């Protein structure tokens, strides 16, 4: 296995384990990991966010975000309204239910980060973040180059 294949394999394990932890922790709230990621984005970025901004912020496709937002609306966590300035765009708002669950949901993510970083010195975590950011940027540039 090449070093890059190993990097991809380890990254996949990290993502899969994290998603399973979030799914398990939020099962009682009837939330999946994609739904929780959207809620975390809204908790961080505030209400009245364009659905397209969620696509960019969560880095998931438009159809996937549309399905996730629809599911969150049905579950009572968010509402979606047409933008007053652009009738083609939707603005997404947290409901009272989502606000009541914010502390619990954010704690699950904080606990996940603490578990993931256990035994790793802070400087190594920063180095890890920078390396992974560079890998993500490199792959994004490569993707753009081959698709354009």
UniProtKB/TrEMBL annotation:
Keywords: DNA-binding, Transcription, Transcription regulation. Transmembrane segments: none annotated. GO terms for molecular function: DNA binding; DNA-binding transcription factor activity. It holds the Pfam family MarR_2. Residues 1-137 form the HTH marR-type domain. PANTHER family: TRANSCRIPTIONAL REGULATOR, MARR, TRANSCRIPTIONAL REPRESSOR OF EMRAB OPERON. This is HTH marR-type domain-containing protein.
